[in-house]
């Protein structure tokens, strides 16, 4: 009788263990799904230049002073589109997005990718600038640039065509959203800048 009781208890503990593992796996999947679909807040500030408007040209220093100045906006001298991705060294979501940039950049041969940020702590910028996902691309620090494009939340992307016109812009919480913004910016059908995702900018 005692042996049967011990066996039943052992089976019960094994079942409890499997149940705990199942709950842990379920919670992890819910967390991953939440990160993928959560808008993480609607963009609260719609200021700055509007989609469809032409940008004025900015000529800014790369944080790596050995590199050439970075031109953003205006007509591109090489007739290339540009993608400006605003990030911050203190933005956890930005850091999470960066590894995906390495893969995405392989399909961006016809687009100039530029990282932009704000803040006075140069050492923090240099630290993120030296990451392998960021180092191949220009990196500028300019508060004026962020204000001009109406950046209120990060990470934030702005797609500018070769003529200097803003084709799409908005908060991008994932690589999937960034890819969607790029496709939207590339499509000539989207001249009016409409966008189905509420986290991204819409033309009024």
Architecture overview:
InterPro entries: Thioredoxin-like_fold (IPR012336), Thioredoxin-like_sf (IPR036249), Thioredoxin_domain (IPR013766). Residues 49-187 form the Thioredoxin domain. It comes from Methylacidiphilum infernorum (isolate V4) (Methylokorus infernorum (strain V4)). This is Methylamine utilization protein. The longest helix has 36 residues, at 2-37. This protein has 204 residues and is an alpha/beta fold. The model is unreliable at 38-44 and 193-204 (pLDDT under 50). The protein is built from five helices and seven strands. Strands 5-4-3-6-7 form a five-stranded mixed sheet, with helices on both faces. It is 37% helix and 16% strand. The chain folds into two domains: 1-31; 53-186, Glutaredoxin (3-Layer(aba) Sandwich), CATH 3.40.30.10. It has helices spanning 2-37, 92-104, 122-129, 143-149, 175-186; strands spanning 58-60, 70-72, 81-86, 111-117, 139-141, 156-160, 166-171.
Task: Write a short abstract of this structure.
The strands form 2 sheets. The protein has a 5-stranded mixed sheet with strand order 5-4-3-6-7, sandwiched between helices. Strands 1-2 form a two-stranded antiparallel ribbon. The C terminus is likely disordered. By secondary structure, it is of the alpha/beta class.
């Amino acid at each position: 009788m005692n042996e049967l009781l011990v066996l039943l208890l052992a089976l019960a503990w094994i079942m409890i263990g499997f149940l705990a593992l199942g709950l842990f796996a379920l919670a992890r999947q819910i967390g991953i799904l939440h990160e993928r679909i959560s808008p993480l807040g609607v963009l609260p500030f719609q200021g700055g230049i509007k989609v469809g408007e032409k940008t004025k040209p900015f000529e800014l220093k790369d944080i790596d002073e050995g590199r050439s100045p970075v031109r953003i906006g205006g007509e591109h001298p090489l007739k290339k589109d540009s993608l400006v991705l605003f990030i911050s060294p203190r933005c956890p979501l930005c850091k999470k997005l960066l590894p995906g940039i390495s893969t995405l950049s392989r399909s961006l041969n016809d687009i100039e990718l530029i990282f932009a940020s704000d803040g006075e702590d140069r050492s923090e910028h240099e630290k993120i600038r030296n990451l392998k996902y960021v180092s191949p691309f220009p990196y500028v620090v300019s508060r004026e640039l962020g204000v001009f494009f109406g950046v209120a939340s990060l990470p934030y992307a702005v797609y500018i065509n070769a003529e200097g016109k803003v084709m799409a812009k908005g908060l991008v919480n994932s690589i999937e959203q960034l890819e969607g913004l790029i496709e939207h910016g590339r499509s000539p059908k989207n001249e009016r800048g409409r966008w189905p995702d509420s986290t991204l900018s819409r033309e009024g």
